[in-house]
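Notebook entry, structure prediction.
Reason for the run: the old model in the group folder had no record of what sequence produced it. Starting over properly, with the input documented here first.
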Amino acid sequence: MVKQADGLFHMDVKLHGRSTGADVVKLMAYRGGCSMTSSRTGRKHTYSRKTEVAYSTVLLPSNAPGSWQDRRILAEAIESAECRKDAQLVREIEVALPHELSFDQQVSLLHHFIRRTFVNAGMIASLDIHNKPGNPHCHILLSLRSVTPDGFGPKVRGWNEHHLAESWRERWASGCNAALRLAGSPTRLDHRSYKRRGLDITPTKHLGTRRDLNTEKWDARAESNELILGRRQIRDARLALRRIEQDFSETHNDVIDAVVQETRDAMAGKPHQHGPTVARQRQQAKPKSKAVKTKASVDSTGYGSPS
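New structure, fully documented this time:
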């Protein structure tokens, strides 16, 4: 039986609105690594140099206009449907992709999850896979309004319910685990926090991208993560040492018991047992304990959990 290993779980859910300066055209251009011009602001947003964008597409409900398959047209439609200066525009979900899966398996997993979870509920989804070394992930932009053949309808407030985010996290973990099982990988994901799982582990902080404006905070988080991971390695090493000491103590007691028994047999005139001693027989009958890994792997926050 193959032992299961903890894998990376990361899902970040947030809303983009004009109150924070968001623009759907800019968001889609950046996520998709392309060039797009906003008719509302007149600004051209060019991100064609983003080489990590490996896959981009738009998934539509059956009743949506077919022209919205073009993300430029879709972005303008979302922007024109909002009049308020503080309007909420799109919801973004960022998920980490299991690196144990091939690229085609990752794409298939995403399509199944997004259609089942969002598109079937009436949302439009624009997805972009960023294939960064060691950090493959996907940006999913979701519409907030109902869809008709003629365009957007009213906003669906029920999509803002807090319990939905938890169900999305659970469904993503379940979908990843099913794909990992089919791929023959022992890795499994758990969407629950360490605290909910009853584990006394301090989570690390998500770093994101280090930029000129966040250098000080990014460096502080990185240093904090290194300390947390270092403490985990020390803890795991102590657990490994404790298990070795326990195994040694059990073996030592077996040897003493065997010597005492053989001495009693000799004093009683019983012939000495040839071949392996009782202690050796007991030791050979014991299952061999596997080495304890102490290397830290990435956790549900993005950066570290014990393997």
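Summary: DSSP finds six helices and 13 strands in the chain.
The old model has been moved to the deprecated folder.
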